[in-house]
Amino acid sequence: MHTLPNTNVRKFETFPRADDMTPRRDPRRAPKVTIDDVPEDLRSVPGVVRDRAQETFFGRHYPEPNFKIGKLNQTYHKVIEATPGKVGETYRILGDKYGDLLARVNARAFSYHELPAAETIDPSPDFTKAIREKALSSGADLIGFTRFDRKYVALEQKGDALFKHAIVLCRAFDWETTDRAPSVDWDVHSYDTSLALALAALEVADFIRSKGYRVQFIAGTGLPGEKMLAPILPYAVDAGLGQMGANGTVLTAEFGSRVRIMGLSTDAPVTHDKPVDIGVNTLCEKCQVCVQRCPGRALSKIKVNWHGVTKYKVVADRCLPVLRFAECNVCTKVCPVQHYGLKAVLDHYRKTGGEILGKGSDQLEGYDMFEKGHYGPGELPRFDAQEGGKGLKHMASLLGVGTD
């Protein structure tokens, strides 16, 4: 167990440990990958293709708004409340299972920077190894360190960021449950995993604070009602945990995008990791399975320059209506990297002269969309206007729940 002083009521609140609350199932970790494992024609640059001058310009003059408190997110939640679908079933299960625990963990995480550090500062010059060991023993599967670059901080929180180092934590979703996405079972498991990672992060934060340093949660508990200072994905890439995939999130060598990611910042002395090239930048251009299998048609075939970064940009208006059925996650389920592991995909690519492992097979690409039925390679569900088939804004207009 770990305890945190509650500065509002001056008593200690006790939370369970991550693996006690949400025991491990089957994360199926694949081997790490180095540049030597990547075929020559898949190599590009470490991290992402970027123009740092453009990034700085847009970060300074046109910073991204905070999606978590923006109108689009408000509209999404109003649509969900009006037509809850399977999401309502997920929330009922979570309420029965955890009561108000999720809300209490969220509240503690995003007020954590208000807690004072221990009065005596540990004189150790570098806590990187100790923090890494603590994170992995507390329930995280991956951890990386980088600079807390302020250019990614959301518009509304520009003055709230406190510390200079970012710590990025990941915990893998269960492989077999992910393979059953989309489903209520997957939804509940995704929140179980988010809770476990948040609890692990609180243990890491307690550890750092006990050494005389402070911590701020910057992104992504993944729990209902979460807050954020900045999107976590740029820091995950800079911390060397993976590269951005065509599905709009980070692909790790060990788990693909089958991970929950969250971040802390701290003033504790740490050594930064570096971005890596594990072949994903080019592999996704050649694969495109997630793009072809997205039930909402929300993924793009092409990369665009977005605020100085060359990336695939998710069309959120097409993606969010599908989430009325459940937390979709088809793009993770059908990704060869999460299904087989990156090294196996790269080895197959090299041996076959460019084939993508599993592409075109129902084993990889098939999925069930609740009462709509099964969809194999080349088949996609259709959604009428009442199901969100014309986009989130159109559906909000039909329901009369727009925020404009």
SSE blueprint and pairings:
Blueprint: E1 2-6, E2 11-15, H1 18-21, H2 52-61, H3 71-82, H4 85-98, H5 101-109, H6 128-138, E3 142-147, E4 165-172, H7 175-178, H8 184-210, E5 215-219, H9 233-238, E6 243-244, E7 250-251, E8 259-266, H10 280-287, H11 289-293, E9 304-306, E10 309-311, H12 316-322, H13 330-333, H14 336-340, H15 342-352, H16 362-365, E11 367-368, E12 374-375, H17 392-399
Antiparallel strand pairs: 1-2, 3-4, 4-8, 5-8, 6-7, 9-10, 11-12
Structural write-up:
The chain has one domain. It is of the alpha+beta class and 404 residues long. The protein contains 17 helices and 12 strands. The strands form 5 sheets. Strands 3-4-8-5 form a 4-stranded antiparallel sheet. A two-stranded antiparallel sheet has the order 1-2. It has a two-stranded antiparallel ribbon with strand order 6-7. Helix 3 crosses helix 17 (392-399) and helix 6 packs antiparallel against helix 8 (184-210). The chain has helices at 18-21, 52-61, 71-82, 85-98, 101-109, 128-138, 175-178, 184-210, 233-238, 280-287, 289-293, 316-322, 330-333, 336-340, 342-352, 362-365, 392-399, and strands at residues 2-6, 11-15, 142-147, 165-172, 215-219, 243-244, 250-251, 259-266, 304-306, 309-311, 367-368, 374-375.
